[in-house]
Structures are given as C-alpha cells and as structure tokens.
Specification:
By secondary structure, the chain is mainly α. It has 13 helices and no strands. The protein starts with 8 loop residues before the first helix and ends with a helix.
Length: about 260
C-alpha cells in the first residue's frame, strides 16, 4: 500500500508506521530503526514522525547502541525545535536521561527525570526513570518515599497506568529487600508480576517484578525451617523464573534469580 500510487496519503502513512510497529513488536531492533528512517525519508511531515523517532530511539537503547541512540535523540530534538513542537523536546530529553542511565550516570539522569516527573506529557516515563535511578544511586530512603507517593496518589483513582504502578511497587519492594523485609518485598513484587499485568504486555517494569519476585521467593524459602513451606516458596520462585525466561529470554535478570534459587538448600 505504501508504494501504491492509488492509495490515499493517510493510508500510506499508516502503512509505514505499521511496519515500524511490527518490527518493534517482533523485537527486531535493526528492522525498527530501518523502517523508522524509511518512514521519515518517504514523508518528512508524516503524522507519525514523532512515534517513528521514539521507536527508533527505543530500538537503539535496546541494542545498547549509545552512538545510535544519541544520534536519533539529537535528530528528534532538532526536528521538534524546527517544527515548533516543545513536547518533542521534552520527550527527547527524557530519552537522553535513559541513555545516561545505560552509561551508569544515574545522578545526571536523575536530575533530568525529576525535572519532568510532574509533566503532563513526559511525567510517567520520567517518574519511572526517577525510581530506577534512585535504586541504582543507591538511595533507598528516597526510593521508598517516592514509591509511597506514587502508590498513595494512585489510590482510589481510575485509569492509573499499570506500568507506573508496577514500577512503584517494584521500588517499594527493593527498599523493603534492602531493609531485610523479604515477605513485604515479595508481596509488592507480586503486584507487578501478577496482579497488574492483566494485558500481558512486556515492559522493563514487568521484567523487574518477575525477577524480583523470584529472588524474594527464593530468599523466603532459604529462611524457612519447615520443609513443606520451603518447598512451596522454592517452587513459586521457579515458576516466576520460568515466566521471566518465557517473556524475556535474553534478560540480564535471569542470572540473579537463578542464583537465588540455587542457594535454597
């Protein structure tokens, strides 16, 4: 349809972005990048230019391609400025913060995330970034306080992002683990691993909740004296590890979860 001269322009544009989305859905980072660039090359003022940039940046980040991500972010920023789109510049800056995270510059990234945490357009992504950075800093007191704030503000509200809540529960769980409150941590990890993930969509937050849940279950099992309880917790840890492996086969979080399970004697 994209090459069909008879097709309406809007249909051609939709076909082009469907290709980008399909490549990203297949976790084909290289294909996503190529399709995103092709979309903009074919029509620089497409309705889907912003989405094409954002998916291209995500694909580069998924590849840990620092140079590629930096180039795409810069091009996105410049396009936003030249076209008078301030929201694009905000989105690009939050993506740059994610790039800083991958480089281990968590304090620098944290400053950017906090700048946009209350922003209507970029707030969710920035808040999730803030939680990640506080964990990596590490600053568990601030992490727990931020997680409690997000969870408290969501209480009683409709339409709150499941991804945002998962990130907040994960953060509170990490703070609990650090304080030695393993069972409390497990309950929070399970919120993201099971309760909130009704859509079945993959995300960094769901991946972390599955891994954290497996680790917490294994730690509870290791501390149990009663064999039946120990075996039950170990089996649940193995089930969460299996889910992690199924949905995120290349995850770097598989190793820590596996090690925690092996430590159960």
């Amino acid at each position: 349809m994209r090459r069909d001269a008879r097709a309406r322009d809007v249909l051609k544009q939709m076909a082009a972005i469907f290709v980008v989305r399909a490549q990203w859905g297949k976790e084909n980072a290289a294909g996503t990048i190529a399709a995103a660039k092709a979309l903009r090359q074919e029509k620089g003022d497409s309705f889907f230019v912003r989405e094409s940039f954002e998916l291209e940046i995500q694909a580069n980040l998924a590849k840990n391609d620092i140079a590629g991500a930096n180039g795409a972010i810069t091009a996105f920023e410049e396009k936003g400025k030249s076209d008078g789109m301030p929201d694009w510049a905000k989105s690009a800056e939050v993506k740059r913060a994610r790039l800083l995270e991958l480089q281990g510059k968590h304090r620098e990234a944290l400053a950017i995330h906090r700048k946009y945490a209350r922003d209507r357009d970029a707030g969710e992504e920035a808040t999730l970034g803030e939680l990640r950075c506080l964990k990596m800093a590490p600053d568990f007191n601030a992490l727990n306080a931020k997680a409690e704030l997000v969870i408290g503000e969501a209480r009683g509200k409709k339409g709150v992002s499941a991804r945002l809540l998962t990130g907040a529960f994960n953060a509170r769980a990490e703070a609990a683990l650090n304080a030695g409150k393993i069972k409390e941590a497990l309950l929070d990890f399970l919120q993201g691993a099971i309760v909130l993930n009704k859509s079945g969509e993959t995300s960094l937050e769901h991946e972390a909740s599955l891994s954290g849940g497996a680790v917490a279950c294994a730690k509870v099992a290791a501390a149990e004296k009663e064999k039946a309880k120990k075996d039950a917790y170990k089996q649940r840890a193995q089930e969460l590890h299996a889910e992690l492996k199924k949905f995120y086969p290349g995850s770097k979080l598989l190793g820590p979860a596996e090690e925690a399970i092996k430590a159960v004697k």
